[in-house]
């Protein structure tokens, strides 16, 4: 057999089903056809793979036989053509090698105090008399973390201007029409001078002016005296002694912003939605943070807490922010009993792979204990993708989630404004909690050194 089965309905209907009812759509296809099926989404028919062995095959690719850039080109108008998300082959590996050191190891841990400080400042502004939308707060926290640790911008007018412009630009991506518009633009770039594309791209161009200004200013400074990601990228060179151009830097900074801001903010909102619906888990986390020092706990201590780590992994299993990662075959491939021709789009379906009952018994149950023993199988737990295309910022994002969650747990007592679980809703390319998780701040504990 050449291609897996697909629902016998037109592409437009499948696209609408994916847009409005993504979870129900995936479950229906999986129930009807089993672990391998095909969905008709623009610009590709996408073969969805959900079993560990098939996913392992996809992630084992070295890059010449499967191309991710072709699938991700829908993001080109935002992140640019030099983004690591859109590159394949040797150029992808070049960018990856230049970027990786900035988001890993000791360099990453330098950002812990900044992450905790930004979170405490946010908590100090949370209202106690009215419900707050947690996703709005986590968006603000993660945006500030990106601006301070990646862009290296200190508090002041410059930070405020860039934050305001980026907030306006990123909000455009929340509109329901954003993704279909970007798909159409990726298929026909000549549309960019027409409305509504022109409105979106003009907002992007205003943002670019500020980004290029930052890059220009920093090239005139001594990067060696700074510890932010941009400083490292300005010093990084490849085997030929070549660094990143201004255009490449702009695209990678925008990628870090788009991929590392909204996804982490959404994951944090899901995390508190999950734990507040499970009081025993919430209490256990609170106790673990108290035992680590509570409001005085260091970022290093928070990052080492085993139950907090397991809880975050279970949140990302049950509520992955990105539902699938795709590749386009550069040559034929036999997989899952099918002979797929070159040009076929294949996907590791993260959402369904995380619900495999043979890997995760009672898969819909929220059980952090699943992750207390050893590391999860990368073909069965893949919220950051896998293989040579695994998200460069995965370690950074996990570290950030631990610091932000641990700080919130230490300084607040929270409750859900509604006892009902949040509905999974597709927003642009992410799965987010519909309504943004309305919370009530029951109490707030700040130290004398904390901002009020």
A few lines on this structure:
With 452 residues, this protein is an alpha+beta fold. Helices cover 49% and strands 12% of the residues.
Describe the structure in your own words.
The protein has 452 residues and is α+β, with helices and mostly antiparallel strands. It is 49% helix and 12% strand. The protein has 18 helices and 12 strands. The strands form 4 sheets. A 5-stranded mixed β-sheet has the order 1-2-8-5-3. A 3-stranded antiparallel β-sheet has the order 4-12-9. Helix 13 packs across helix 18. The longest helix has 31 residues. The chain starts with 10 loop residues before the first helix and ends in an 8-residue tail after the last strand. The relative contact order is 0.17. The mean pLDDT is 93.
How would the global form be characterised? Answer: globular
Strand percentage lies at: 5-15%
Structural class: alpha+beta
Order of helices and strands: HHEEHEHHHHEHHHHHHHHHEEEEHHEEEE
